[in-house]
Amino acid sequence: MGRELINRITVKKDGVYISSHSSNDSAPYRSHKIQSLTDAYEQGGQLQLDIEIIRMLSEYAEVKGTHQSVMRYHRLWDNEFHNEYIEKTNRLWDMLTEEDKKSRYSNDPTVKMKNYREMSTIFLEEKYMNIAKALPATI
Question: 8-29: buried (b, 16+ CB within 10 Å) or exposed (e) per residue?
Answer without folding.
Answer: bbebeeebbbbbbbeeeeeeee
